[in-house]
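Handout, page 2. Input:
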Amino acid sequence: MATSNPKEMSFLDHLEELRWLLVRSTSAVLILACAAFFVSDFIFEKILFGPKDPNFVTYHFFCDVTRFFGINDAEICNVKMPFIIQNTNMGGQVSFLIWTCITVGFIAGFPFILWEIWKFISPALYEKEKKYAKAFIILSSLLFFLGVLFGYYIITPLSVYFFGSFSASSEIVNEFNLDSYTSMIKTSSIACGLLFELPIFIYFLSKLGLVTPAFLRKYRKYALIIVLILSAIITPPDVISQVIVAVPIMILYEISIFISFIVVRKELKKST
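Output:
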């Protein structure tokens, strides 16, 4: 049984709190997944298979950008998707439906998951820091959703366009597996969403004294290498796509350095 003071909770009490955090978060995701089931037609046709449509908004955007710079014959202005998506597993479409709804539930329920995490760690914070709960939830959720949108509207279309139109030989026909196609979209979107949480992650590491602005500046070049590697993993194997991903992440890294500087300065003032 938990003690009256959260800061005096035993190890088993903390485990019990963690268990209920997972139970409540999982329940929220499943409830939202059930809600997503009722709009699954829209999710599949307009969202999941949206990047497969040559008229997808991203292709028009990049076409306008290339024309703005005087490039009128860019391939992106004449998008073709010479491939089909097929299901080769007996229960493939059932699994596809279930996991797509769960993914939507996770993305939609991310603010609630953050709230549960905040409640779990708040006993270790000062009273003044607990007042920042709303700001934490709003900023973290905003960064996550921005990352998801970036992954979906930038990374995913570039990947679908590159792999869908690439052909090593005219004798080879692109027929992508349903799991492969949807996994790429989910991975790109959620991975970018989590990568955009970098400033929040650095904030807590700075609070714990594990990271300093000097440390982040010193290892900036190594961070750039890691970002480029991550960009190569979640994007098509071309330099332009990797740069498009790397630039916003490096901007977030620089913002993280500034955040770390503010946190460390405040901690020093408290100790003096």
